[in-house]
Structure formats: structure tokens, C-alpha cells
Amino acid sequence: MSISSAVETLSKVVIRFAGDSGDGMQLTGTQFTATAASIGNDLATFPDYPAEIRAPAGTLPGVSGFQVNFSSEDIFTPGDAPDVLVAMNAAALKANLRDLRSGGILIVNTDAFKEIDLVKAGYAKNPLEDGSLAGYRLYQVEITRLTRAALKETGLPQRIQDRCKNFFALGMMYYLYHRPLEVSNRWIDQKFAKSPELAEANKLALKGGYAYCEAAEIFQVTYEVPPAHLPEGTYRNISGNQALALGFVAAAQKSGRPLFLGSYPITPASDILHELSQYKNFGIYTFQAEDEIAAIGAAIGAAFAGSIGLTTTSGPGMALKMEFIGLAIMVELPLVVVDIQRGGPSTGLPTKTEQADLLQALYGRPSEAPCIVLAARSASDCFAMAYEAVRLAIKHMTPVILLSDGYIANGAEPWRLPTVEDLAPIDVSFRTDKEGFLPYLRDKDTLARPWAIPGTPGLEHRIGGIEKADGTGNISYEPQNHENMVRLRAEKVARVAVDLPPAEAEGDDSGLLVLGWGSTYGAITGAVRRARAEGRRVAHLHLRHLNPMPMNLGDVLSRYERILIPEMNMGQLALLIRAKYLRDVVQLDKVQGQPFKEIEILTKIQELA
Amino acid sequence: MSTAITPLTKKDFATDQEVRWCPGCGDYAILAAVQSVFPDLGIPKENFVVVSGIGCAARFPYYMNTYGFHTVHGRAPAVATGIKVANPELSVWIATGDGDALSIGGNHIIHLMRRNVDVKVLLFNNRIYGLTKGQYSPTSELGKRTKSTPFGSVDRPFNPMSVAIGSGATFVARSVDVYAAHLKEVLHRAAIHKGTAFTEIFQNCNIFNDGAWEPYREKELRDDNLLHLRHGEPLIFGKNKDKGIKMKGAFEPEVVTLGNGTTEKDLVVHDEKAPAAYAFMLAQMEAPAFPVPVGVYRNVDASVFDAAMRAQVADVTAKKGPGDLAALLSGGETWKV
After folding, report:
1. N or C: at which end does chain A have fewer Cβ atoms within 10 angstroms?
2. Which of A497, A230, A544 is nearest to A387 (CA)?
């Protein structure tokens, strides 16, 4: 390929593809990401799509976006502000322009800026003509018309041709950033294996976009983003929900037990169900239940019978599962509950992110009902945390709640593949010995009770939600016994801390500590690095274990003069830290359904350190 | 797993726990019947699991010396489904009540039957909330005066048999707590059915709803008020076996007296395999116009959920081979650094 224009090398570019939800923007973004991954860029993505499946075409509620940050350096977030915005229609421009950095590249499909499109988008005047885009490098391209021209020979109906225009736009981006077409061509061939004419059309559109830029020389400068220097290994691009699914499959394989997932479809958790449903040959049983309650109930039943019980949901589903989580705590069975948090309360913002279920996970049940609570901090970390959740549930015979959120569930990043041999063993030992068996006989270190599964001769016993005497498990209403049992259940979970790695802050060991949990990891990491580069005394500590917390956390916190907690809620971790450690903290709360930008955290750090 | 070498007896299924139902409760009779049926099923004791929700009936597992799980109100079908899928060797039984199964757990019971999970459901129907001390239930008759309905209830009741048949249950039966011989026979048939076996048991709550089933429990009354269903036999009832059920119109039954030209040949012949509409007609036969049918209403074969689920896993595994974790992790596009 000959490229006549000047070539610049950049370390990092953020592109946002935006269009109507029927325009295939998620696909376009995913394809650009796959190609960036194949080149070896570090990357992070952020799909942002509406809750409506098909809002009226061309309107603001129907706008779907996909942001990808690709880089030759370490990156931690999908980027604060896009360097490039591809707007497939007027509504997409209107909804996204405010985020584009000033002087950024703006590519618009002029074919979707007709009078009617402008009205639907709520533009009084055509922004392409009124000078309002003067602060950007605007490229006006008749993407629809050019796609039709590229596909003229196919003889496909125009409606079908028009659906290929996202690949035309992708081809343009491939030209602008010196990307090969092979990865996408391969994907198209696979995807449309059964309709070769569609495969051909999409490939033609992709090639057409690329060739158009080449021939028309619309860009004076094109860019290269070299591969990143990631640690040695084999990588793949992975989203949080995919990583969770793989983590659970890995845990099932390493434990030698079948995995039973009970789930009810809910955004943004359904992909875990879809993913795990494919892996039946790994001994994965997936049960789409009649509701959220039945989903967890069946998982608990399977756990009683010796499977790894798993249920996956989001905030509203969590609320419905709480009574059953209480039962699992009472009967002390292993269970993993995944909550992919979204904006709430109630239906809230189904497709937008939030991390406001922390207190629900910790305290959202009747009475004293402690369980283990974990939180994944990035898409790839979801693998490790899924694995960890199963390990802890089985070892400690208790439910584990694993928190993720819409941001990392759908966002993707490169994941360095673990080797199967390096995964920690997960030992499952069912009780079989009749001698001295009692259903609530406890391991002296962990206080876990034996896992004695139906079908084992001589160990017939009854469990249930009524308070029971320790040891025998017989029903007991004795006042002192209840207090003993409440304390025992609390102690059992508290002792999990012995099993956890100590908290370690990264950066300075005094000054300002930025404390986070969950998906804020990327934005905090980026912000803290930039602050340290500015010479500020600041460190970052990220919690993956929220209950119990690492044993040394109090000591670590006491070393810092100030503590800043950025959270996508109204200060839930801040409340816990104040309550548990009597330390005041500075809150940085954001509840817009959108993840933090690095700059938002950096600005706060600059204020404090 | 070993199978029992010495034959099991009723005693093997009794626990050391003190039974805490009210003296005179119909649950005692049901417990005795279940404990005497289990040993005869040829199933090792360790393979029985009794699951329950909440309510008086839900205490059942504590009194059965088997594996048992006393779960959450109305949700026993969900837990039982998980147990059965995880280990199809198990014989899984649910003990539930009219409130547990048909009110708070209504959604779960219908889906259990729709899926045809191989689980046996014993619905103890006493037409009252007992454990919460006497509120009306979804099977209480219209106008029922209780603590929560001092002026009479205004909601129409469920007929459990209609619910089961409407949900697509493949085995639907009805019996009476103190009618031991009949109950045992029905339970035995439920046990050997492949799929969900739903049995409604008229059960007397002598504290909050005493006498609700009197015409069907009292020896001198029941022959005139119960209609015994036997596959292939005409619908005959009455102390003197002189009354029967004849079809007046399409699914429109009427009670006739034998004699005067009416013979057994004119009567409906019970068919457990008949279309569901027939079983539904039986369910709709209510006192005082009709005798209440007891026995097996419906017994048909259909795909069994837990078996189908396991077969699918086996099938996919046979086609794709056992999962290779390393290959799975490195699936999709990968690159080396």
C-alpha cells in the first residue's frame, strides 16, 4: 500500500465511533480493537449504548458509541476525551461532540445531515455549515453514497448495502492509523460463512473506505501507533464478562467439580449466561430460571448436591436474591453470586455503570448475615476474581459476592493468558467418613463445616434456615446458642482475612493515599501516575477484598496524612473506612452512569497533594 | 455408592427429632405414610432428599431420616431443581403447603411442572395458613372468615389440580391424609413416575380449620363423597357403588344412578393418558354437585428436564470432546509479546 502523505508516530490515540444503534457501532469498535490488539497495542475500550434496543432512528436516545484507546504505552482507561470522533449521523454528532478534544479529528457522514436528520437530532441549523465546528479538523465524507458506490457491483438491495457503511468508516480509520485489514476480513468471513454475498459486501465496504482515503488523499497526515511494551506472554483481548465466564470454567476444571449456573437475563450481566452456555463440554450446567429467586435457589440446591453453585445478576436481581443469600449463609454452603452493578435504584440506568451496590452486598440482608465480598478492578482482573471467588467459597463453605460493573463488564483490554498449571489448586473434599460426623462440626482453622453431599451413605442430615445448635445442626431456639452462632458465622468470615494477601499501596508511603475499589482502578492508576510525574507525594491502594478487608489495612491507612476515595456512588467505601478505622477521608463521588476520567481524579489530587 | 444390603424399614426413616406438629394434625398421618412407602421403593436411603419451603408442612424434612433441606418460603421447587440436575441419582421430594406452593411459591411450582423436573411434590392442602396462626389461604373457599378476613374473604380460591394440569404436569394425583391405604398407593405411583409428580393431599388443620375435609376423611362419609379413579375402569362411586359419572355434553359430566337402564357402559371410563382437557374436567368436579375424584388424574410421559439437561451436556461433550481449558483460554485472536 502506498501512502503518499506524511506519517507521524503517536504514543496514544482515542477514537470514538458513534452512530445510530442500528449502525453497527459496537461492531465497528470491536473490530478496530481486535486489530489494535493484533498489532500489540495496549488498549482499553468503553462501549456506551442505549437501553432501548432500537430507539427511533436518527434521534439522540438512539445514539450508540464505542470508544477505544490504543497505545504504545501502558494505559489504564479508555481515555478521557476522544482524539477522533466518527459521527455516522447528526444525532451522533450532537450527543458526542462535547467530549471531543479541541482540535480533534471529526469525521462525519454528510449523507445523514439532511434536513430531517437535523430535525431529529434537534439542530436548528446545520452544524456543518454554521461554523460551529471550526475548532476541530472536520472531514465531511459522503459515507452512505460512497459505500453504495463501492458495492454497486454486488447487486444487493440498497438497504443491505447501507448496512455495510460502518465497515466503510472502519476502513477509513484503518487507513488513517496504518492498520491491516486482515483481522477484520478474517472475522467477516467467519461471521458470514453462511452468506458469502454479505461477507463479500462487508469486505468490499472495508476495502472501499481504505481505498477512498488513499485515492482521495483526504488526510494530509496519517499516524502510526507502535506496539506497546507489555510484559512477555500471550495476550488476547477480553471483556470483563467474558473473563468472568472463563474464570468460572477454569475454577470448575481445577476443582474437578461441575459448575451449575442459575441465572435470569438482566443487563448488563446476561453475557455471562450466554458465554457459559457454550461450555457444556466443560461440565458447565446453565439453567435459565423463571426468575432471579429461582436462579439462586437452584444454584444453592446444586451446591448442596456437590456442584459449584453460581448465580449472576445486576442490582435489581441482587435485591431479589437476598433472602436466599441469607439461607446460604445459614446453611453454610459454598455459593458465588455475581453482581454486575448498574445505575440505580430500581431499573435506573440499565446499560450505564455505577458501583453503588457495595453496601447492599455487605449489609443488604435481614439480620447479621456476613459473607465474603470481592470486587474485580478491571476487565482482565475478572478472570482472577471469579477464580478467587470459587476458591474462597469452597474453602470457607460460605457464599461469596463478587462485584463488577457495567463499565468493566463490557469494556475490554488485553489479557495476558495464565497457564493452566499456574492456577492455584482448588481442593474439594467431600465428607464421607461416618465416624464422628456432625453436619456443623467445624474445621479448627477456617471454622468451615463439612461438605457432606446427598448420596453419601450414613451422612443423612438436615439443613435449613432455622437457627441450629452448633455441631449437631439440630433446631435450637436457645438464647445463648443463637448468640454463639451469630458470632461464629461472623468469625468464620472474619478469618478469611488470614487467607488474603496484605494490602500494599503503590507509590509514596506517606502523603496522600488514593483508595479505591472496583472499576475505578484504571482511572486512579492513570491519575496517580500523572500526579507523581508532577512530583506530588501520592500513592494508590486498590481493594479487591471488601469483606473481610486485608488485615493490615488499618496500619497502611495510618501512614498517610490524607485519604482520597473516588467512587461511583455517594461515598459507600468512605462510610466503611470511617466506621471501621475511625479515619476521615475525602470523598470524590460521581454518579452519572459514566466511569471516572483520569483528569477528574487528577484535578482532585492536585487540590490535595 | 453402596446400596442398602438389609431391607429398609419404616423405622429407618424416622429421625431422633421430636415431632412438633400440633397433636391431632393431619401431617402425622402423611409422615407415617411417606415413611412406610420409602422403604419399598428400592432406593438406597442416602439417595432420598426431602426439600421444603416454609410453613407447617415444611417441617417435614426434619422428621425424615434422609438428606433434607428446609429452604425459603415458596422456593423449594427451585432448590429441588438444582439438586436433581446436580445428581440425577437422587430421589427428590418436596413437602409443601397451600400457601407455600400456590401463593408465595406459585411461580416456581408452575415452572417446575412445566419443565417436568423429576421431583415429587406433596402438597399438604389444609385451606388455611397454620404456622402464622390462621389467615385464609389461596385454597380457602370464597367468603372464608379468618383473622385476616373477619368479614369473609373476597378472593376466589385456586383448585390445585387445575393449576397442576394447566401447568402441564405429567403426573397429577389427589389423596387424603388419613386414608392411609389410598395415600400410600398414590405415593408409590408418584415415586415411580419419571418427571414431576404432583400430589394434592387433603390435610386437616385441627387448630385453625378443623373439619375442612370432613366429608372425605370420615370413614362413614367418604365413600359417598370420594370418586376413586382407576385407569381403564368406569367412574363409579357411593357406598353401594351405585352411582357414576356420565358425559352429558362435551366435557360436561353428570352424576347418574345405575339401574333403570343406566349401566356401567354408559359411564366415563377413566384414562390417565387422555388429553389434559379430561383431567381438567375431573379437577373441576367439586362438591356438593359432584364427588371429589381421588387417585391418579393424569399420568403421561414427556421429556424430563434434568435428564434432558444432562443428556445435552453429554451430547455436546461427545461431539466436541471434553473441554480443553488451555485451548479455551487462548481462544479467539491472540498475540505474543
Report:
1. N
2. A544
Chain A residues with CB under 8 Å of B323 CB are: 249, 253, 279, 281-283
Does the beta-carbon distance from B108 to A294 stay under 8 Å?
Answer: yes
Nearest CB to B316 within list A231, A281, A293: A281
Compute the distance between CA of residue A39 and CA of residue A46 in angstroms, rounded to an integer. 19
Choose one of A162, A195, A224: the last residue of a domain: A224
Last residue of a domain, one of A207, A224, A241: A224
Answer for the pair B297, B173: CB distance below 8 angstroms, yes or no.
yes
Among chain A residues, CA nearest to B318: A281
Is B224 in contact with B291 (CB distance < 8 Å)? yes
Q: How many CB atoms lie within 10 A of CB A278?
A: 15
From chain A, pick out residues whose CB is under 8 angstroms from the CB of B70: 462-466
Tell me the residue range of the domain where A542 lies. Answer: 506-608
Predicted-complex ipTM score? 0.97
Query: What is the 8-class DSSP label of residue A440?
Result: B
Same domain, A494 and A512: no
Q: Is B58 helix (H, G, I), strand (E, B) or coil?
A: helix
Considering only CB atoms, A465 lies closest to which of B71, B319, B320, namely B71
Question: Which of A296, A341, A337, A295 shows the shortest CA–CA distance to A316?
Answer: A341
Are A553 and A406 in a shared domain? no
Closest CA relative to residue A295, chosen from B227, B107, B211, B53? B107
Residues A337 and A213 in one domain: no
In chain B, the domains with their CATH numbers are: 10-229+272-283+291-310 (3.40.50.970), 234-269 (no CATH)
- Rg from Cα positions in chain A: 26
A502: contact with B, CB 8 A cutoff = no
Do A493 and A524 share a structural domain?
A: no
* Residue A158: CATH number of its domain: 3.40.920.10
CATH of the domain at A412: 3.40.50.970
CB pair distance less than 8 Å for B313 and A293: no
* pLDDT tens string A306-358: 999 999 999 999 999 999 999 999 999 999 999 999 999 999 999 999 999 99
Is residue A519 located within the same domain as residue A557? yes
A301–B81 C-beta distance less than 8 A: yes
What is this structure's pTM? 0.93
| Per-window interface: A 538-577 vs B, CB < 8 A | none
CATH number for the domain spanning A561: value is 3.40.50.920
Residue A150 CB contacts under 8 Å (≥ 6 apart), including other chains = A168, A204, A205, A207, A208, A209, A212
| A128: contact with B, CB 8 A cutoff | no
Question: Looking at the domain assignment, is residue A1 inside a domain?
Answer: no
How close is the nearest chain A Cα to the Cα of B187, in Å?
22
Dihedral in degrees, nearest 10, Cα atoms A196, A200, A205, A210:
130
Q: Which three cell numbers stand for residue A172?
A: 477509513
Number of folded domains that form chain A: 3
For residues A268 and A314, membership in a common domain is answered with yes
**Helix/strand/coil for A493:** helix
Please state the rounded mean pLDDT for residues B96-104: 98
Partnered with residue A541 across adjacent β-strands are: A515
Rounded distance between C-alpha atoms, residue A545 and residue A451, angstroms: 24
Q: What is the mean pLDDT of residues A234-248?
A: 95
Distance from CA of A509 to the nearest CA of B (A): 33
Q: Are B283 and B162 in contact (CB under 8 A)?
A: yes
Residue A410: alpha-carbon gap to chain centroid: 5
Cell numbers standing for residue B149? 378476613
Which residue of B47, B67, B79 is in closest CB contact with A297?
A: B79
Q: Which chain A residue is nearest to residue B50, measuring alpha carbons? A: A462
**A401-438, pLDDT tens digit by residue?**
999 999 999 999 999 999 999 999 999 999 999 999 99
Residue B51: name the closest of B72, B31, B35 by CA. B72
